[in-house]
Amino acid sequence: MNNMEHILQGWEDFARKIQPPHRSMDVHELRDHAREILEEVAMELANPDFARSRDASGNTPAEIHADTRAVSGFSVDQLLAEYRALRVSVLDLWSRREKTATWFEVEDMTRFNEAIDRALAESVSRYSEGQHQAQDVFLGIIGHDLRTPLSAISLGATYLMRSENSDSKLIQLGSRMFNSAERMQEIIDNLLDFVRSRSGLGIPVHRTEVDLAVIAEQIIEEFRVSNPGAVIHAVLEGDVRGRWDGARIGQIYQNLIGNAIQYGDGTTVTVSTLARDGEAVLIVHNGGTIIPQAVQPHIFDPLRRGPEHAGNRKNMGLGLYIVREIVIAHHGTIDVTSTEEEGTTFTVRLPRQAE
């Protein structure tokens, strides 16, 4: 490329303008992998069958460039701007040269744009992947490091509730502390499950012989004690024993019943555990506020809540996502229906023997 240095200088000047305010990058940093990216583009123009270059770890120059820009504090918008400026610089040089209007000049421009788009896609994909990994590591560290101080708070709360020296106010304070610690533990567990599911490994399950009737009765009784004003009706039909992860199934009941109480506006919550052909069916139904039709397709997406719940700070929008991941890990299905006439119903189907 006869104009390599001119293009690289333009890349350097632009990168200097948009570099993070706290950085003062040298020429090597500003031009990071720009030459290698341009050389690949030139090779692709000269030979469509050109074999892409990769380092020892299998990374392309565009991917390495994204990694170094992320470390330097560049945003994804700044990364995109670099490629946009590079494209403009090259097209400007091309516009100044004498043209013959032949078909291969148009083809060269098309292939040039395709090569730049390919490098851009690689950079953005790598940048986004790195950001997601960093977020997951951060969430994992938070979840892990919060467990120890949270355990201390729970022990202190238990002592206040059970101590012979505590008066009614201290017992009440201990009870509130213990309930808050339990809620914090649930949030931490959801965060860690969220990180695990995003790693691509899914929610881990450990199957043993369990009786869903026992699990349902235990969870329902806990909700009756902690929500004395709630009316929870339990329905049990048939033999609902099978090989499932009992603790994870408990999470399904907890999340679905908790949502039904929270959004049921004081209506009766019906929890059904039914034996059907080769599967167990868990159904949680409530009246009250319905889930809008526009929200229902996204109700199981992470960090998503309906607009009427957006101001609710009691949850992070992970509960139903975790429920779906647990159901999928058991090779089951989960569905929701919500109408003014019928109320809201979550239906979980779990195969008995799926491995």
TrEMBL record:
Entry-linked SMART domains: HATPase_c, HisKA
Q: Provide the catalytic activity annotation.
A: ATP + protein L-histidine = ADP + protein N-phospho-L-histidine
Q: Which residues form the Histidine kinase domain?
A: 141-354
Disulfide bond as UniProt keyword: no
**Superkingdom as given in the UniProt entry:** Bacteria
- One Gene Ontology term of the molecular function aspect: phosphorelay sensor kinase activity
Question: According to the UniProt entry, what is the EC number of this protein?
Answer: 2.7.13.3
What's in the keyword line of the UniProt record? Kinase, Phosphoprotein, Transferase
Top EC class of this enzyme: transferase
Q: What SUPFAM superfamilies has UniProt attached to this entry?
A: ATPase domain of HSP90 chaperone/DNA topoisomerase II/histidine kinase (SSF55874), Homodimeric domain of signal transducing histidine kinase (SSF47384)
| PROSITE patterns according to UniProt | HIS_KIN
UniProt name for this protein:
histidine kinase
Q: Which organism's genome codes for this protein?
A: Noviherbaspirillum galbum
